[in-house]
Amino acid sequence: MVVQVLPIQTSNDSTKTTNGKLKALEEAITFSEALERTGYGKFNYLVIIVAGLILANVLLETSAVAFYMPVAHCDLELTNFRKGLLSAIGYVGMIISSHLWGFLADTKGRKRVIKPTLIAGFVVTVISSFAMDFWTMLCLRLINGIFVSGASATVYAYISEFHTDRTRSKAMMIASFIFAIGAMFMPFLSFAVINREWSLPLPFMGLVYKPWRLFVVVCGIPGLVCGIAMYFLPESPKFLLSINKQEETKEVLQKMYKVNGGKEKLVIPHLLSEEDTDEDVESSKNKKSYGILSFLQTMWNQTVPLFQRKYLRSTTIVCITQFWLYVITNGLYMWFPYIINAMGEFMKNNPGKNEYLCEIVYYKNEHLNENVDNSTIIDCPDKLENTTYMYSLLMEIIYVSTYAVITVIINRVSKKCIMVIMILSCSSCGLAAIWLPYTSISAILYVLLFLVGISINVLGAATVDLYPTKLRAMAMCVSLMMGRIGSVVGTNIVGALIADSCEMTFYISCFAMLSCAILILFLPRSITTETTATTKATTQENP
């Protein structure tokens, strides 16, 4: 479709008159070119930092349970079965709400979803720190997962729409780099907060407030900070333009230009969306409908295009890949402290002796079964082993370093290539971890297995390029919903297999990764690349 956009002019040019419609057509520019003229500076860095902190908040809120579960099971009366439920419940909340948040983000706005869900998520986190029993904690973490889901997927669409095709991927990887730095602080936070010896009796509530409860609150603070920051950030200009809010779009572009160091006010007579399609028009009509049936119909209409011929291949590949990557990075990670603690105890009690990773896991399980029944609550440690912190920190340092490298090369190397190399390398580490009879080396290889999680962020950067503005947030939410299902499935599968079929757990994970690497090769070209090529061809045909 031919796109006609009047050029952005500075105030010095505002006195010049146009020479009619022909001159306007000759000077027509796309939205991306208009966005390019706002510059790249402080405003973009602010958006990237906030987006990175939001991603870090998602990790802290969902993964912190792996650190506080071992020291909270007496207060919450946790059995092994209940630990599995508590590990998975946050992802259940994300799964049941992802579709709704994607719809609202695509129809009501990115900011209108991100801001309230961040604040609400923190409030629920604070309340959950006072939970006196397992079922209360379970319900509150479910609600927290629902709110965390609102920001986690929408933020990808939000950050991408403040950047052009040239800077989008790099911006998203910088945000992921900030996320990795935030993740690196989790072992520090856990050690600094959980491994303290203090307690605060609250007789009016009938509980004792311990360090692990404070750790729950601390992990939610980034959400509060980002929620406040969103009050000062604008709505996505591309979203505003897609729903024909011309004046609001101009205001956002002018704000970006000013914060980025522009000396003169941008004068924007008119802009047209690059994606003025029938799907957009239909979506705009749907937003005028009211009532629960109309709401559900509109949400259905917003989802159907993702599974129609034009986007079916992209949606299928992205969803399947997300599912299995989350099975490994989140499902298997929830048992990371358990396995690393077992290996640490073995090395501490058997200096100089080596053993296969899975043999150590089997020994640990047999040792527990000799003392207690599987459904019985065992002793009540108040601290975690230092080995857990050491290997967790090692993993996060490698994460940050790898993110830094990918951030530099993301615009020079194909995203497909990056993901395939990462997945194949990590699957090799996973197999080597259970095949080598050297405990310390196996522990490091086991840590390297989780670097496959970096592929999730690269896949997110690729996904936003595969869909137009009107479907972008919904596509991210649907794909991440499949990922969260993978987290729930992975957590419970690993819990069921790790004690008796440890090798099978790793074989399934590595085979799934190899399958994902093959699927990624069939991802289509980004829609932005095709749009740019079409626009250039149209410009040449219509001088």
Report what the structure shows.
With 543 residues, the chain is an all-alpha fold. 70% of the residues lie in helices and 2% in strands. It has a two-stranded antiparallel sheet with strand order 1-4. Strands 2-3 form a two-stranded antiparallel sheet. Mean pLDDT is 78; it is low at 1-8, 13-26, 276-290, 371-378 and 528-543. α5 (80-107) packs antiparallel against α6. It has two domains: 1-37 and 240-273, no CATH class; 38-233 and 306-368 and 394-534, Growth Hormone, Chain: A. The protein has 24 helices and four strands. It has helices at 21-26, 31-36, 42-63, 65-72, 80-107, 110-128, 134-160, 168-193, 211-218, 221-229, 237-242, 246-259, 278-286, 292-303, 309-332, 336-349, 357-371, 386-409, 415-435, 439-449, 454-463, 469-497, 502-520, 527-541; strands spanning 9-10, 200-202, 207-209, 266-267. This is Synaptic vesicle glycoprotein 2B isoform X2. One of its GO terms (molecular function) is transmembrane transporter activity. The chain crosses the membrane at residues 45-68, 88-105, 117-136, 142-159, 171-194, 214-233, 317-340, 389-410, 417-438, 444-467, 474-498, 504-523. Pfam families: MFS_1. It is found in: Membrane.
